[in-house]
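Structure ticket #2291
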Amino acid sequence: MVLPLIPTEYPTELDPYSRAVTAAAERVSPAVVSVETRGRRRGGNGSGFVFTPDGFVITNSHVVHDAQRIGVALLDGRELPATLIGDDPHSDLAVLRVDAPDLAFASLGNSSALRPGQLVVAVGNPYGLAYTVTAGVVSALGRSLRSQSGRLMDNIIQTDAALNPGNSGGPLVNAGGEVIGVNTAVLPGQGLCFAIASDTAKHVASLLMRDGKVRRGYLGIAGQDIVLGAAAARRLELDDRRAIVVSSIEPGSPSDTAGLQAGDVLLAFEGEALTGVDALHKILTSIDLSRPYKLDLVRKSERMSRIVLPVESAE
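Resolution: structure written out below.
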C-alpha cells in the first residue's frame, strides 16, 4: 500500500472564505483597543474601537461604568489614558476619548442592511489575549436582550462568531471591514453571542458626545422589527410596510397604562412612521416628556390609536 505524500509546505493561496475573514480582520484591527479599568476595589478589562480620527472610542457601558481610571492599549503598542465622555447603561454603550496622533479608526456601517447568514468577524481581547479574531454568520436579527442594568435592549444582532469575556465592546464587522455591531454579551455554554446594532451605536454615541448622557423617554415595551405583507399594507393604506410588533409590556409602565398589548403592531408615533425599533428609540430621545402622544397601531387586523405619556427613563 502506497501512502499519499504529505505536503511539507502549506499553500500560500488562501481560499475565498479565508481571504474574506483575514481582509476584514486586517482592516479593523488597527482601530481595536484593549480597555483596562481601575475601580475602588478591583480592575477590569474589555475591548473597544476608535471610530473617529480625533480619538473617540466606543465600548460597552458595563466595561467602564463606575471606573475611576481608564486606559487603552493600541495595536501599535501605545498605552494611553482615556477620558469617559459618557455612558448609557440602557443601551450598554459608552464613549471614551484618547489624545494621540495618527490614530487608525474604524467606519460604522449600516446594520439595517444585514441579512441572516451573512459573514461577520469579531475582533477583541478575550481573557486578555490581544487581537483575537473569530468569524461566523449573522444568526438572527431583531433580538431583545437584557443589559446588565436590567433593562431590555432591542434590535440586537445574534451571531455564532465566538465571543468570550474581554470581547465586550469590541467590533463585529462585515466582510468589508465596516463595523455593523458592538459585541456585548454571551450566553455561556449555548454558543449564542450578541452585538448592539451599529445604527443604534451611531445614534447613542452622537448623544453621548454631545451631552454626556442620553435623556430617553420610556414606554415600557419590548418590540421587534417586522415587515407587513403587501396585502395588509394596502388594506391599511400604508406607504411603508415596516413596523414594530410588541413582544411584551412592562407591568405598570406607560404602555400598560395606555392599554397596549403584546402582539400589537405599532405603525406611527404622533404621526411619524415607526419603521423599526431604532426609529422609535430616536424619537424617544428627542421628545418633550411633559405631554402625551398618540400611537397608531394595528390589533387583530383592526387599526386604532392609543394615547401614551412617556416618562424619563431611569438610568
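Closing remark: The chain has a mean pLDDT of 88.
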